[in-house]
């Protein structure tokens, strides 16, 4: 309705302007040529613009309104398509169970950190005795545990850090702009966030869940795989040392760094 009102008003204005111009030309040019503007001339000066200018301008203005509406619909469709594309791309980056970054996306973050001028660390965390949880309580409870552990890891991140699920019960955290002390403190904070409070699962069962954490600085001179291999090796050192602990690449410095943080 708004478009129709605009067309009617504008076409009426165009017709009125045409009538005014027609009358103006009649009273100036006809006498100059020796003619006389009589009743028929006045009638023609009014009727011709109304019969020609009004429908012609109304048609053109209506086509313009249609084009504008089509353009607006196209812009809206493009925005919706872009939002759908962004949502799909974000879904593709995420682990379906925990909502964390998936393995490929997390390793891409490691690659970005490797090319940065700031020192970054990669932490690899693995749930201790997770197979026992699945065997005793079922895989549905196991999935619940993974989801809650993911939430605790996410809540312990600093600005610029990233966390992802590498697969199974293994997670990874990228610490941006982290020196040795920050890395040690962050790894211990993540370990404690999981271990300090039992995880409540179906049936009101409280499970004591712990993680082992291995970490390594990301060396810009080495490929991404090297950082993961080094952190993973530290993880297995933590497992062999009794689990529920942190081992970083500079293992001999960890205790001192934690004590000072």
TrEMBL record:
<dbReference type="GO" id="GO:1902201">
    <property type="term" value="P:negative regulation of bacterial-type flagellum-dependent cell motility"/>
</dbReference>
<keyword id="KW-1133">Transmembrane helix</keyword>
<dbReference type="InterPro" id="IPR000160">
    <property type="entry name" value="GGDEF_dom"/>
</dbReference>
<dbReference type="GO" id="GO:0052621">
    <property type="term" value="F:diguanylate cyclase activity"/>
</dbReference>
<dbReference type="InterPro" id="IPR050469">
    <property type="entry name" value="Diguanylate_Cyclase"/>
</dbReference>
<dbReference type="Pfam" id="PF00990">
    <property type="entry name" value="GGDEF"/>
</dbReference>
<protein>
    <recommendedName>
        <fullName>diguanylate cyclase</fullName>
        <ecNumber>2.7.7.65</ecNumber>
    </recommendedName>
</protein>
<keyword id="KW-0812">Transmembrane</keyword>
<keyword id="KW-0472">Membrane</keyword>
<dbReference type="GO" id="GO:0005886">
    <property type="term" value="C:plasma membrane"/>
</dbReference>
<dbReference type="InterPro" id="IPR029787">
    <property type="entry name" value="Nucleotide_cyclase"/>
</dbReference>
<dbReference type="GO" id="GO:0043709">
    <property type="term" value="P:cell adhesion involved in single-species biofilm formation"/>
</dbReference>
<feature type="transmembrane region" description="Helical">
    <location>
        <begin position="12"/>
        <end position="35"/>
    </location>
</feature>
<feature type="transmembrane region" description="Helical">
    <location>
        <begin position="41"/>
        <end position="62"/>
    </location>
</feature>
<dbReference type="InterPro" id="IPR043128">
    <property type="entry name" value="Rev_trsase/Diguanyl_cyclase"/>
</dbReference>
<dbReference type="InterPro" id="IPR006311">
    <property type="entry name" value="TAT_signal"/>
</dbReference>
<feature type="domain" description="GGDEF">
    <location>
        <begin position="118"/>
        <end position="251"/>
    </location>
</feature>
């Amino acid at each position: 309705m708004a478009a129709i009102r605009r067309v009617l008003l504008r076409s009426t204005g165009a017709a009125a302007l045409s009538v005014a111009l027609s009358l103006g030309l009649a009273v100036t040019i006809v006498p100059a040529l020796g003619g006389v503007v009589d009743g028929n001339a006045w009638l023609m000066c009014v009727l011709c613009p109304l019969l020609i200018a009004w429908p012609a301008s109304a048609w053109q203005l209506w086509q313009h309104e249609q084009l504008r509406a089509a353009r607006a619909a196209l812009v809206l469709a493009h925005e919706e398509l872009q939002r759908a594309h962004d949502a799909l791309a974000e879904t593709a980056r995420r682990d379906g169970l925990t909502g964390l970054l998936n393995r490929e996306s997390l390793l891409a973050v490691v690659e970005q950190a490797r090319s940065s001028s700031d020192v970054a660390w990669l932490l690899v965390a693995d749930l201790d005795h997770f197979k026992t949880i699945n065997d005793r309580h079922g895989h549905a409870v196991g999935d619940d545990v993974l989801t809650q552990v993911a939430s605790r890891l996410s809540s312990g991140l600093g600005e610029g850090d990233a966390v992802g699920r590498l697969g199974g019960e293994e997670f990874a955290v990228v610490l941006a702009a982290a020196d040795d002390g920050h890395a040690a403190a962050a790894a211990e904070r993540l370990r404690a966030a999981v271990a300090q409070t039992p995880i409540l699962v179906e049936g009101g069962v409280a499970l004591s869940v712990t993680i082992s954490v291995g970490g390594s600085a990301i060396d810009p001179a080495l490929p991404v795989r090297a950082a993961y291999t080094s952190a993973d090796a530290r993880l297995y050192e933590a497992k062999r040392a009794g689990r529920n602990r942190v081992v970083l690449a500079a293992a001999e410095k960890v205790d001192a760094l934690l004590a000072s943080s």
